[in-house]
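Write out this protein's structure.
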Amino acid sequence: MKVSIAVTSYNHEKYIKQCLESILTQKGDFKMEIILGDDCSTDSTGQILEEYQKKHPEIIKKLQNEKNLGVTKNLKRSLDACTGDYIAICEGDDYWTSDEKVQRQIQLLKNHPEYSMCFSAVTLYYEQEGKYTPHNDQAKFSRDELTIEDLIAVNYIGNFSCCMYRASGVRRLPESLFDIYTVDWMFNMACSEAGKIGFIREPLSVYRLHTGGAWTGKSNSDQFSDLVKNIKDYDQYFQYRYHDLFEKKLATLAEQFAPRNSETEKSKSCKRVIFVLMVCTAVGLAAAGYVYLNSQSMQKNWSWPVAVLLALTWGAICILLIRRRMKITRGKNLK
C-alpha cells in the first residue's frame, strides 16, 4: 500500500522545513512518496526543497515548472503526479503534529469503504499573536461524518493539511473542477459527492494563519468579494443541484462579513474624508495667501474668505462623490 503526500508551496522559506520534517517522521504500515509542487517561489523555498530531495531521493520528487501557475493549477499538477493508493495534501506553511496521522487516516478509510475521504481536527495558529486555538466550527460539530450538505453550510474542514483522500476518487474528478478557483473547500465538496467524509476528532495538524497566506493575507472585503464570485462558480459546477444551499450560504456570509466590512469601510471613509479636507484646506489657505499678498488695496482683502469657501465647497463635493462610490461598490458585491 502506497501513500502520496502532495506538498504545495509558494514563498514558504520560513515554514517549509517544519512542514517536510513533520511528514518525514510519519510511521506505519505503508510506503510513502512526497511530491513537491513549488509554484516558482521567488525566495529560497525552491533551494530548500532541492536539498531535501537530495537527502531523500528514494521518496521525494520535486516537480519542475518555468512559470507561476497559480494555486489551483499548481494543485492539479501536484495531484496528477501522485501514484499512491491514498493522497494527503499539506501546504508548505502548515504542518502535522502526530507521527501517526497518515496511519490513522488510512485505517479509518479502510474501516469505512463508504467514505470518499476523511479529515482530523485542526489547530489554528495565529502567527502574529503567537496563539494556538481549536477550530471553533469543528468543535461544534457533533457527528463523526460529514455530507456535502454539511460542507456547503459550513467549511468544517477548513484546510488541506488535515485531509486524506482515496486516490481513485481524486482521479475521477473532472478536469473542469480545476478551471475554476479550487482549493480545500471546493475540492472537498467535489470529493464528498462520491461518499461521506469521516472525522477524527483529535487534532493532527496545524493550519498557520499569517499575512503572507493566500487566503488569510487578504482583506475582509476582498475575501467576501472572492467568496461571492466563487460560490456562484461552484453552484454552476454542481449544475445547481445544491442551489438553495448555496443561496443560504451567501446570505449567511453577508451577515458574517457585514460588521467587519462596515468597520473597514468606516475606517477607509474617515481616512479619505480627512485627506480631502486637509488637501482642500491647504489649497484654500494657499489661495487666500496668494490673494492677500497680491492685493493692490485693502478693499480687495475680502477675496481670501471666498477662496477658502470655494476650496471647502470643493472638498464637500469630493466627500459626497467618495461616499456615493462606496455605496455603489457595496451594492455590486452583493449582486
